[in-house]
Write a structure and sequence with these properties.
Length: 701
């Protein structure tokens, strides 16, 4: 049965590049150049270049938000958390519909190129392809992304060959002036209008944000994948469209819906038969298929996120055993089929363009709101350059481009926005008690504040884990440990913790204990543990004091009333390392919240074992073998008979206070503590099997 578990992190850098690139190519290169040339003439290549440059503010802002909040739903999630659920509903619905309809249109576009060689009904073929891609994505994002990689590799390879061969075989020294004269048939306004017309060709770049929850190492792979994609795509667009202008007569180009195939017949005529045209048709099919597949993959994550937030029925939030949003994919596929069979393509394109520009405007606003709200748990791994001028420039440009879309497009866009707003007022508003980060900005002006966004960002920080440069292991390794049977209260424990910390920082104020007491209200208070923390000017690095109380102590640390506490952690850091301080704190919380933490904590033998419990990484797992626990089936088995993933190894067995390296004949016994090392994915699978559910699996770094 499907459940509301987290999505698997299966996507790497090549997948990010492929999804971005695949979502951009298709109609933008294979269909639109002729239509765009009819508006501005030979300057169409310049329009593509300007559009690519103008994508940068949206790309930078989306990369920042995606690395701060890697969640399914992408820009919907960002807008909801920054500007509130009403704007989130409008933006999410618009983006979802734009992406879904654009993907459906891409599959229809395959027919124009396939019709050059075979007589195949266009719409039935598009429906069949939609069903195929829908089934593929139900199997998992990794499977869908694997096809995406193959399609993009084929596409980029063929286009690179077409452009390179055309550059070398076309006599570029004759007739060039005539082809580019007049350069702009409708002046600057024609160029700007064409920029708005082709702008949607780059819209797929930011769609990677909608699957950011499934990306490994999102703080590296999201911005790098987006940057590589925009560079490659812009080069192919600009050079390719310029070649179309050179190779084709102006009137022929402006009337051609398959301009790349027509150009290939001219520049690749040296290949045998119609091989040149066949190659281009193959790349066009790959482009349209890539857009359709990427559309289902990305679009289905929007209703998933909105279902999680209860803005639409919660069935959309269900995730199957394959780790994919089954119901959301089915509905997305059904909408695409309906669009293919019943809707007008021109209206689809206009709504998509209008909504994309509105979304890009709001995404830039969202970055400003998140920065100015000063929420300390907002910790993007990538920060947009030249803030806030990049965002101000983007907002201004996108508003101007909206004006060039025409009255009809604006009315269609506003109509769709009003419908989404009406849905929120009727259905969503009564189910949601949440406000955006903009309330924190209001709070700075003496008005409102919403604490829920802080809690959510704190949870995201825990899931993302520490960064490679964070000294978490060093902090744990040098931490002082206080092992007590009982204690007389938090104040007494805090004073002894300060003494431990003074060994690393002799200048600590003895009154720090009182500051730890005051900080408890803002500390992590978890089941059986308290994480107290302060930032001090007179410390040079982060350090930690660890306290174990074997019999526990009853503490009233928040409004939930008294709790039995067995573990206390006292963290100090300099203010300049504020973000690092929070990541270390979040990593501690991740360990403390694991299913067997308190049992492991109370059974640990000595200071070093206490530290080791906190040092467990995504490549290492320690299990305690006891009846009544998930590990019970391991008791009495020899290691060689265990069914363990091939990428794992039982490295150490601790028994009766002694540690030894096991061999294949070692028999596991009740009370053993075994340490397993291995590949991250295998360790995650073992974690789910023996410790906790998928919600608590440590995130892949």
């Amino acid at each position: 049965m499907a459940s509301a578990r987290r999505l698997k992190k299966d996507l790497g850098l090549l997948d990010v590049f492929s999804i971005c690139t695949g979502a951009m190519f298709s109609s933008g290169f294979f269909l639109l150049p002729g239509l765009a040339a009819a508006q501005t003439g030979p300057s169409v290549a310049l329009a593509y270049l300007i559009a690519g440059i103008l994508m940068l503010p949206a790309m930078f802002s989306m990369a920042e938000l995606a690395t701060a909040m890697p969640r399914a739903g992408g820009d919907y999630y960002f807008l909801d958390r920054a500007l509130g659920p009403m704007i989130g509903t409008v933006g999410g619905t618009g983006t979802y519909l734009a992406l879904t309809l654009k993907s459906a249109f891409a599959l229809i576009g395959m027919g124009a190129y396939l019709a050059l060689f075979m007589n195949i009904p266009i719409k039935p073929l598009a429906v069949a392809l939609t069903v195929a891609f829908m089934l593929l994505n139900i199997l998992g994002a990794k499977e869908g992304a694997a096809l995406q990689r193959a399609l993009v590799i084929i596409l980029v390879s063929v286009l690179a060959f077409f452009i390179t061969a055309s550059l070398f075989t076309t006599p570029l020294n004759t007739g060039i002036t005539e082809r580019f004269t007049p350069f702009a048939i409708d002046g600057v306004s024609g160029i700007l209008g064409t920029v708005g017309f082709v702008f949607v060709s780059y819209a797929g770049l930011t769609k990677i944000a909608s699957v950011s929850e499934e990306i490994k190492d999102p703080e590296r792979n999201i911005p790098l994948g987006m940057i590589l994609s925009i560079i490659v795509t812009t080069i192919i667009y600009v050079v390719g469209v310029a070649l179309l202008v050179i190779l084709l007569e102006p009137d022929a180009l402006r009337a051609d819906l398959t301009p790349v195939a027509t150009a290939a017949a001219v520049s690749l005529d040296w290949l045998p038969g119609e091989l040149g045209v066949l190659l281009v048709v193959a790349s066009a099919v790959a482009a349209f298929a890539s857009t359709g597949n990427a559309g289902i993959l990305a679009a289905s994550r929007y209703p998933l996120a909105m279902g999680r937030d209860r803005l639409i029925p919660e069935q959309f939030a269900q995730v199957s055993k394959k780790g994919t949003p089954l119901f959301s994919i089915l509905v997305t596929g059904a909408l695409m089929i309906g669009a293919i069979l019943f809707l007008n393509e021109e209206g689809i394109a206009k709504i998509a363009s209008g909504f994309q520009l509105i979304i890009f405007t709001l995404v830039n606003v969202a970055v400003i709101v998140m920065r100015e709200s000063r929420i300390e748990y907002y910790d993007p791994g990538y920060r947009s350059p030249l803030y806030p001028w990049t965002q101000v420039f983007g907002i201004s440009v996108y508003v101007v481009l909206l004006g060039f879309l025409g009255v009809e497009a604006l009315l269609l866009t506003v109509g769709a926005a009003v419908l989404a707003l009406g849905w929120f007022m009727i259905y969503g508003r009564q189910r949601v008690e949440r406000h955006g980060a903009i309330y924190h900005w209001y709070e700075r002006l003496g008005r409102l504040r919403y604490e829920g966004i802080e809690d959510e960002l704190r949870e995201i920080l825990k899931e993302k884990g520490i960064r490679g440069e964070d000294p978490f292991d060093e902090v744990i390794s040098r931490a002082g440990v206080l092992d007590l049977r009982r204690a007389d209260g938090f104040a007494a424990i805090a004073r002894r913790a300060v003494i431990l910390l003074s060994q690393q920082h002799p200048m600590l104020d003895p009154d720090l204990a009182a500051e730890f007491e005051r900080s408890v209200g803002t500390s992590y208070v978890l089941s059986g543990a308290v994480l107290a923390h302060v930032r001090l000017e007179n410390v040079s690095q982060s350090d930690l004091a660890i306290v174990r109380i074997r019999e526990g102590i009853e503490l009233e640390v928040n409004e939930d009333g008294p709790q039995q506490v067995y573990a206390l952690f006292f963290l100090v850091s300099p203010p300049r390392a504020s973000a690092q301080h929070l990541r270390i704190l979040a990593q501690l919380a991740r360990h403390v919240e694991t299913h067997a933490f308190i049992e492991d904590w109370l059974h640990a033998e000595g200071d070093q074992e206490l530290r080791e419990i906190l040092l467990h990484s995504e490549r290492m797992l320690t299990l305690w073998l006891e009846p009544g626990h998930r590990t019970e089936p391991l008791i009495g088995q020899t290691i060689r008979d265990l069914s363990m993933p091939p990428g794992t190894l039982i490295a150490v067995v601790r028994r009766n206070g002694d540690s030894h390296v096991p061999n294949g004949s070692t028999v596991l016994q009740r009370g053993d503590r075994i340490t397993i090392i291995g590949d991250m994915e295998d360790i995650q699978d073992l974690y789910v099997q023996y410790v906790g559910d998928a919600d608590s699996v440590p995130a892949t770094p």
